[in-house]
Structure formats: structure tokens, C-alpha cells
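Each record in this resource describes a single protein on a pair of labelled lines. An example record follows, reproduced without changes.
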Amino acid sequence: MRDFVTEVSIRRRTRWARFAAVTGPGIVVMLADTDAGSIITAAQSGAQTGYRLLLLQAVMIPILFVVQELTIRLGVVTGHGHGYAIRKHFGARWAWVSVSTLLVACVGALITELSGIAGVGALIGIPGWLSMTIVVVGLTFMAIQGSYLTVERIALAVGLFECVFLFVAFRAKPDLHTALAQAFDIPITNTKYLYLVAANIGAVIMPWMVFYQQSAVVEKGLVVADLRAARWDTAIGSVVTQLIMGAVLVATAATIGRKATGQSLDTVQQIANAVTPFLGQFSGTMMFALGMIGASLVATIVVTLTAARALGEIMGFKHQLAQSPREAPWFYVVYMLTLVLGGLLVVSGIDLVKLSVAVQVMNALLLLIVLGFLFMLARRALPEPYRLKGVYAAVVAATIALTTGLGLYSGIAGIFS
């Protein structure tokens, strides 16, 4: 009996050790998913519609997992990044179409992330040019000096600051009866509401997430035996990211939305002001700053790496953090240029709130291309035991069709209203 108990204990420790070793890509990409643009979109949703988009945050959890599970399956089983897989199975022309879509999304996302950092810097008196200099120099040094695991740990550490929004939502003391009633009140004919629906869909499923996670599991060296743990990593991340999105929405719905439903937010300062009445001026500002900085930094890391890796995959140059600047010069050149150009655009001055929501709507409009390639790769690139097929393939196809269809309809209706 003692031997049996010892064996079970060893097996449990082995499973936990494997899970701890595998964990990272899923949670990192999900924390990056709740980036500055997503937080601002959730805040705008709460301010303008109250709790009416809260149910959508919960509905998106399984959809997000279904999409990202395909990326880890493709990466772990084939050992190829997303851009390389498209080039291999559909040709260079289609690879460029997909990566061009990705780069557009990356540029939009990077501007919102760096603008978020600049906005937080302004709250505490740091000029934009200095914030951008610190970020560009710091993240460049991190990439050049660190390995993949080092970068992953840094991303996890800064990303966890986002959890501060859960505490903020709790302290905002939302009216549960009102929240429940509004959550199921869906004004489907309201074009402003539809525009925010599209923005929230685009804020949850972004093109760069698909590329990043598939490349990350390859660079981390995960194998088929790690697939179950990698799925749990992604499932936990899916729940955490949507809890954070929901928390931001609840915090603003319970404050700005309760006092003046339909009010549009124009600055990061307005969002920060929503939490200060419950936490105090100094504490509220600092907690908001920590959450926004965590969201922006982890997303900046992920987006910049994704752009450099994807170009490397389709152009054939080395593109891993394990390789030094001497071994992979073009990877680091693209990485640094992306950061510098993003910083320069932000310093030039930009309306962060309107841009952030517009970028998320753009992501929703691009979903058809991104998810279409993902679905076809899961049907074509995977060997028989892991191939997307049968009833589950039909469920995934329906999920993708409904998500992209709703994103397209809501986005177009909102834009041309």
C-alpha cells in the first residue's frame, strides 16, 4: 500500500512539474490579449452601455480557447510557426497575404500599447518622449540579452499586474441586480452598441495571438507529450484574460456608466478617474497605472516579437531569441525598428481612446483571413491522430463562422451608421 501511495504521489509531482515547465506561452499571450487597447475598449463599453456587454465577455472564453488550442496543436505537432506553415501548405503568395494582415494588426496594436504607456506616464508627470525612450531601450536590451525563457518570465511578471483590475471592480461595489438585468438586455438595433460588439470581439481574438502562440510553443521546444499541459495553460489564460476584461467593464459601468450612461471616454485620465473615488486619489492612480503598464508592456513584447518572427518565417531569416544578434541580425533589426517607429508615432500625438477602439474593430474585420487560414491548416497540416475532423471540426467551423460573421456585421454596421 505504501509503495502504491508513493507511486501515485510521484506521478502527481511529475504531472505538476510538467505543467510548470510547459506553462507560459498560453498565459503570456492571454495577458497580452488584455492589452491597453482591450482595457480601453472594455472601459468604453462600460461607460457607454453599462453592463450590456458583460455577457459577451463570458461567451468569448470558450471561443478564445477553441481558436488558440488550434495554434498550440499546430505548433507542438508540426514544429512550425504559423507563417512558415502557411507558406509550406498554401504557397508564398498566401503567406504574404496572411503576414501582411498580421503586420497591419501589429502596427495598430503597438501604437495603442505604447500610447497606453505614454498616457500612464503623463498621469505621474513623465513626458511622452521619456516614456518611449525608456520602453524602447529597455525592451531592446531585454531581447538582446535574454533567452526565450527570460523574456517569457519578464512578460508573465509584468502581465500579472493586470490582476489589479479585479480588485478595482470589487471595490467599485457594482449593483448585482442592475448588472444581471443589463447583461441580458441586448439592444441589437443600436449601431453604437454594435460597433462596441465588434470592438470587443476584435479585442479578444487578435491576429497576432495566433502567430505568437504557435511560434512560442515551437521556440520553447514543446513536444506532443506536452500538449495536454499546454491546453490547460491556454484554458487558464482564457479565463483570466476575460475576467480582467469583465472587471474593467464592471468598474467603469459602476462609476461613469452609473452616473452618465452613454458618456464617451476621451482620455486615459478619465478612465483612471473612474477608480479613484473608491481607492483614493493616489492609490487609485497608482493601481490603475500598474494595471495599464502591465497590460501594455506584456502586449508590446508579444506584438513586437510576433512581427519579427513572422517576417523571419516567410522570408527565411533566423528568428529566435535563442540566437544572438550576430546569428540572427535581421530578426533583431526588425524587432528594434518596430519599437522605434511605434515610439515615434506615439510621440507625434494621437487620440488613444478612439484609436484603440478602432484598432479592435479592424481586428474583427480581419478575423475572416486569420481564422480561415488557421482552420484550413488544422485540417491539412496535422497528421491523422491530431487533425481537426468530425463533429468537433463542424463545431469549430460554426464557431469561427459565427464569430467572424458577427464581427463583420457589427463592425460594418457601426462604421456606416
User: Anything to note?
Assistant: The chain has one domain: 2-415.
